Amino acid sequence: MVKWWLTANPVEYCLTKTCWRGLTWNPRQAYFSNKPRRFPTMLKLDCRSKLVFFFSIMALTFICRDLWCMLAILATAVAIVAMKDAPLLGRSLKMMLPMAAVAFITWSLLHNWSLFQSGGAGLDWQLGGFMSIRLLAVLMVSTGFLATVKPGELMKGLSLFGMPYGVVFTTGLAFRHVYTIADEYRAIKEALSSRGMEFDKGSLIKRIRNYAFLLTPLLVKSVENAEGLVLAMRLKAFSLDRKRKWRERLGPMDVLVISSSIIPLTVAILHYYAGVV
What are the coiled-coil residue ranges (predicted)? Predict the structure, then answer.
């Protein structure tokens, strides 16, 4: 963090550290922009409604056994990711489609060897297509959850649901550590690439050896970050015995999202397991 006494203009430092609603400050170009910030509807929801929604839709991916139901879940997850970040959707599909193709071939040819599926021998293209779509739905819902729910919102939501503070803190800290490790990984990889080390070219053995050189500084940096975190917690006299509770009321949109998430999940459970609906 740059201190104010290290900057050429202390006023510029103060302005960059100030939060302006509806205004964006660019210290390089030195102007204010009244351009309104537009956020997707999912980002404006309460953290509890987000958690209930993603838990319900993830549970539906494992409960539903109909192809059209799975396609609807996949379309919903794709719409959420596209609404959050369209480039993220393209990158995600680029990685997920080969995995879905492998799952389609595997389940179509080797379904009789599965521990979770019983059936006759031979080809079953319908089962292969269903399982590949289910895999895409699980991956896309997970991507939407990570892109939409921030670690702070996850901690706040779990605390509001009555989870123990130790569990809430550990879960939020683990998610924050994942983002930190990802940033450190990119920085170390760019530094090694600038020195001439190639990670995407050459033989498999050579690429594995190059990635081994990448993992060593990443591990050292992770230990340093952990030591810094422990030191900060000691200086702040942090204790897991403290109880922090947020009390906020749900808005009409939150109630609508929670209701529309719980009702399909209840109907699916009654239909597939109880045979009532």
Answer: none
